[in-house]
Amino acid sequence: MATTSQHLRGKTTCKKIFWAVFPHACFIVSLVIYAFLGALMFSHIESTRKVTVSEEYRTFLQKLMCLIRKLPDNVTENETFNQDIRELFNTADPVWFINPKERWNFFGSLFFCCTVFTTVGYGNTYPVTRSGKYLCMLYALFGIPLMFLVLTDMGDILATVLSKCYNEFRKLQSKILASKLCSGSTCSKRNELKSRTQSKIVINEPLTIMEVLRSQSGVKPVKYRNVELFEMLIARENENTQPARNKSMERWSSCPELAREKTVSRVIENFDKIGKELEKLDVPIVLMVLVIFVYISCAAAILPNWEKNMDFQEAFYFCFITLTTIGFGDTKLEHPKFFLFFSLYIIIGMEIVFIAFKLGQDRLIVLYKKVISFCAEKNMPSKKIYPK
């Protein structure tokens, strides 16, 4: 019997954990599936496009040939030639020099999808075909809200972890300060005073309705409805004093559908609670800035291992531009396949930056409220006291 009860308890605990984790896992799995589907679609559309020689490309080649024929002996000292070459290549379209099958393979398309729904948009990879552009707009229309939903959901988890860590740190700090300020003699005196006061305190529990009626047995009720009221109160008191029975288990044993409905309602409540913990978060903005700095510094130290054209400062700049979803595109990646494995880092980093922006927004609102109230107090007319 003991083993079966333990087995049932373990089974119910596993079910509770599963249904608690289910909403968070549902969002992440949906985003991963959405990214993979987008990669398949874009790789099929953009990699199979026909490369046609446009009139602009022919004009570009003709001008380039003319400049090459007029090539002077000393190229480095001829400023007009360098300027003409620079102006000519500024008019060139990067699509002319890209092989679609190499750029739009599965990993390249997956990297493009990640830049779309994270709103980074580096600009070095973009759809060329008309159907690819329409698909990109439709893909972003549904992908960006899904990404923000994942950010909000995972932000609740990070906010809970940060708030708990910060509260534990404050408790530890207060204990250390209390131990430093409190000497041995004063602490012992305080403990003696506490023990004396606690020994003198007598807690009188409130009487139940039955005890009140027994003590007031000689008193007759004024009206009949008062007697009915007291009987109803006594019946409710008896129900409260009886040992609580697990009514839900009795219902579950007779009708298992009620248990399923209760589980489904709990899961729906978990969906409704998205964003609540993020609203409750109250930590110093300096702490969040420090967390962001450490987080980006760790990635900036790892990224140059496979991106040889980057040093620490360039990688730090690239990670900051990526996590803040600015995405200038001035710093390009040579190996986007490796950076795709870094996608978890990007999502968590965007959540941390999102929390920092939320805290900064709350602080700005408080600051604006103080400024407006201060200006309103200054502009209010002062009360004049007239003599009687």
Describe the structure concisely.
The chain has 388 residues and is an all-alpha fold.
Compile the SSE list and pairings.
Elements: H1 2-47, H2 55-69, H3 79-90, H4 100-103, H5 106-117, H6 130-181, H7 184-200, H8 209-215, H9 224-241, H10 247-254, H11 256-272, H12 276-280, H13 285-302, H14 312-323, H15 336-340, H16 343-379
Structural description of this entry:
This protein is mostly helical and 388 residues long. Among the domains are: 63 residues; 185 residues, Helix Hairpins, CATH 1.10.287. The chain is 73% helix and 0% strand. It contains 16 helices and no strands. Helix 1 packs across helix 5, helix 1 crosses helix 6 and helix 10 crosses helix 11. The radius of gyration is 35 Å and the shape is elongated. About 2% of the residues have low confidence.
The count of strands amounts to 0
Identify the quaternary structure here. Answer: single chain
How many helices? 16
Major β-sheet, in short?
none
CATH architecture of the domain at 104-174 and 269-382: Orthogonal Bundle
CATH class bucket of the domain at 104-174 and 269-382: Mainly Alpha
Which blocks of ≥5 consecutive residues have pLDDT under 50? 245-253
User: What is the helical fraction, as a range of percent?
Assistant: over 70%
Keywords: Ion channel, Ion transport, Membrane, Potassium, Transmembrane, Transmembrane helix, Transport
Organism: Emberiza fucata
Protein name: KCNKI protein
Membrane topology: Multi-pass membrane protein
